[in-house]
Amino acid sequence: MPVKISLLTLPAKKANEAAIGQVFLAQPDSEKEELAGKLFAVITVNHHDKKESEAVIDFIIEEATKGYYQDEKIMLRQKMTDLKIENILEGVLVKVNKSLNDFLEEYKIKIDSRQVDATIGVIYNNELHFSNVGDNHLLLAYQKGENFKILNLNEEEDANRAPSKFFSDLLSGQIPENAIFMVLSKDLPEYVMQKEIIKLVSEENPLEAVEILKGELSKVNSLTSFFALIAKNADFKTIEYHDRDSAHHSISQLNKIEEKTERILSSAGLINIKKTLQNLIEKIKSLLPQKHLSSLSNIHKRISPQHIIEKSRHYTNNIKVDRQALKKHSQQFFSLCKNCCSIIKNLVLIVGRFLNPQNIVKKSKQISAWFKRIDKRAKILFLALILIVSLFIIKVSLDNTQKQKELVKKNNQETLDLIDRKENQIESFLLYENETGAEAIIKETKELVKKLPSSTPAEIKRQQDFLVKLQEQEERVQHIIRVDNTTTLADFSSISGATPTKMLFETGKLYLNDSAAAKVYEIKVADPTINPIELKDGSIKYFALDEKKIYMLGQKQVAILDTKNNEVEYENIDLPTEMSVKDMEAYNTSVYLLDNNQIHRFLKRQDKGYSIRREWLNNPTFASSLSDLSIDGDIYATKNGEQIIRLFKGEEDPNFAMGPVSPALSGVTKVLALEKNIYVLEAENKRLVVFSKEDRQFLAQYKLDKFTDIKDVTANETDKKLFILSGDKVYEIGNLPIKENKK
């Protein structure tokens, strides 16, 4: 027999109450539910800090749910029948108790078990196992004869219980057939008697009973929150109706349901269609002349369903198999069809005569003449009647409008309350670094904010304030750093013809490549003066750093700048004429060139320059999708502008993946792998994303909205500084996020 469970959560309408509560029912998958049942919790925390109370409740529920359903003993129950639910739950609650005390100590939250009313348990089939602390009311109501007997399951409070002991001994038992198990918050029985709740649940489905109970409680108090869990062990398919003896009873039940539905719609300010049509028909009857009224009455009788059914039965019962009878009844059937068409035609003519403009004018003149003939007193009474009817119609219309406004106002207030609760929950998740949960709730809250009215300036401002706050919370989840304050390290606008395009950092100095001017500019970060270094080759395009040397590629040679003394040497390189280079990197004195067909490795040969070429990719089919390289022993590359991959021994590493970032990478123009971090630049999107190189987890993303022409970025990880080349200026930004490597 199934146990039906329903939850009641009714927060206080006013925020004067210090108590924060939650009712929770786990929704495991079917396999786990079959093995372990459903975990439930009814928790209230009486503490002055609302956020800390919510954090404690969330922690208890999360630890209990995770610890219970992920316990290896649950899966072993398929093979070991002696593993009991109560033993598993008791072990889990011991762990939750310890984890909760560690949690409170770590975050310095001053809450002990005397401030908590908590019931945590499991309903498995019709078995009940639970632990209770505090003042929740635990009741079991079961049938004894025609009445219900109430059993109080609360244990006497242990006065010597330690403040750190949140969950006491476990109680176990069964929920008998047609019995009701309830967990009620401590204040609920003060407003609704226990017997009344039990009577209501015994007569209704628990879901319906909770809705009725919620409606009653919302009327009587606005300062107290109510929480409850109600479980009923009954076969609901057999108790939908108390009496199935007759069709008359079924019809009467349907009529009652229809009338109840109409009343509900009416109370919400909607139109009662049935009564409106009846009133309209009566009004038409009162306005029609008597001869038309009689015709209409006859038509109504002749086209009524009962009349048609009786005639059909009469014809059916008198049909005989012989041909003559068949011919006769066929004629009767066509005659009936002809009569129906005639009736419809007459009805259309009557309505047409009534709605004819000339007839309306004529009737209006008759009414006007009649009004002139009657005496003064009758005129006054008639006008008074019209006035009263008009006022009545206006009153009904205003009442409906007011009901609609109150309904909209109530819905808006409920939405505002829900937004407020979700914002507090987001803050709680952010406080305890649950970013995944916070991001999901932020999305839900944004949808709620969009539903708020925005017709007045005040409503528009309220909506914008909500969105601004959610944007701030979302930026915290996404680790967004907005770059507003920067230091200008160097300005090339004062140097005629200077157009630097690439930038590298090496031992306290920045080096910038200017292909157009055939120069490299050296800038000491500590003393930012620009020192130009002349190059012989005017076709230098690419820029790579390896072991304190900077490699630059020309048409037929490689220029190598030694950063120790700023001396430049040149080596020849044999480039195939069909090669169209997209990027260059250098590692261990070798030069790596990327084109649409391959990554080519050029090895230096003594006295003969870079004359040896090797094809590095074993399978070069995806080379055309690569656009930027960075080498630290492995090769990192940008693929399709939206993915960072790692290449090892000529193959793509299938186990390499960067941590998730929101929004996802798009339009990547550079990847830079340094000692501790991997930097990914999206120049068009004005975004720099930083990942930890150790575990590839997302650390931060810089919003570079203030820069108009971003060309390159690099970093000094020792001093935690970031450098940005935008336009003809170099900017410096501090506080670079660095995740220290594990020892």
Instruction: Tell me, briefly, the overall form.
Output: extended
Low-confidence stretches: 236-274, 291-296
Proportion of residues in extended strands: 25-35%
Strand order of the largest sheet: 1-10-9-6-7
**Major beta sheet summary:** 5 strands, antiparallel
What's the pLDDT, averaged over the residues?
A: 82
Counting H and I runs of at least 4 residues, what is the number of helices?
A: 15
- Structural Rg: 41 Å
Let me know the number of strands. 35
Structural class: alpha+beta
Helicity range: 25-40%
The rounded distance between the terminal residues' Cα atoms is 57 Å
Could you give a short description of this structure?
With 743 residues, the protein is α+β, with helices and mostly antiparallel strands.
Kindly list the characteristics that best describe this protein.
five-stranded antiparallel β-sheet; 35 strands; 743 residues; alpha+beta
Task: Characterize the structure shown.
The longest helix is centred in the middle third of the chain and has 56 residues, at 376-431. The chain is α+β, with helices and mostly antiparallel strands. It contains 15 helices and 35 strands. The strands form eight sheets. Strands 1-10-9-6-7 form a five-stranded antiparallel beta sheet, with helices on one face. A five-stranded antiparallel beta sheet has the order 2-3-4-5-8, covered by helices on one side. A five-stranded mixed beta sheet has the order 11-32-31-30-29. Strand 26 and strand 27 form a beta hairpin.
